[in-house]
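**Protein of interest**
===
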Amino acid sequence: MIKIEELAKKLGAQVVQTHVSWVLLLEDVVYKIKKPVNFGFLDYSTLDKRKENCEREVLLNRRFCSHVYLGVVPISHVDGEYLLEDDSNVVEYAVKMRRIPTERLLINMLDKVSTDDVKLIARHIAEFHERAERRDEFGKLEVMKFNTDENFKQTQKYIGITIDAQDYAFIVEKTQAFYEKYGELFEKRIKDGRIRDGHGDLRLEHVAFLDNGICIFDCIEFNERFRCGDVINDMCFLSMELELYGRYDLSKAYEEEYKRISKDEEFDIFLPFFKCYRAYVRGKVNSFLLDDPNYPNKDQAKALAIKLFKMSVDYASLI
């Protein structure tokens, strides 16, 4: 396995870690290196797989923000030292990106952005969805039910810890009732072309206001099931997060603009259902952190998971 500390020291780079990547931050560029891990839904366990996922990450993200994603570069190990962008003895690959100033990220601009700003984001996303590849197979009710059933199974162990038993039962009940009531609409949305190869992780930290326009980055490349689906499911992750931070005014403007542009007849039916799903997924992921022996901020993760599951209940009550 590559010795990140050695490479970072040679480059004079700051290292930021996620559970799946090392990110080397330089003044103007970023090198993102995938960890050799396999979580089932994500497999970076071999060099070939990491290269393939790096290439897919660049290809998919250039759909949103082409000027930020510069390409995939090799890392070689020669005479005891690492050589970046050298293919003489390749031991690893990295995604090379232009560095986005943190102060330009939407997560850090919530006290500055206006409703007009989020309307621009809505138009940007709606126009992307319009030209994105259709992926009808991911719109089937059985596929969505697989996702929600998986969530419910994976969160049973957190009942009484991050989610109340009554809340858990309520969300399960309302989700199942939605499938029974609106099952036929899933097929209609497939026929109407509402199932697209989207982003999959439209969060506040993945949207930036740059000098040359809005940049949306870091889409999911490792699992099609998490990236492809109903366009409302894709776009509403952002409005759910705006509400998580208390910006209901921005969320409303964003949703209304997307609805206006997309002319989606079922928008109001599906929006609370998918927001319920998105809040639940985030509550689940934050609950997972409680089981990570190396994660330092477990109290913070627990508090956030509790808040997200409560949001999911609120959305479920609107279904």
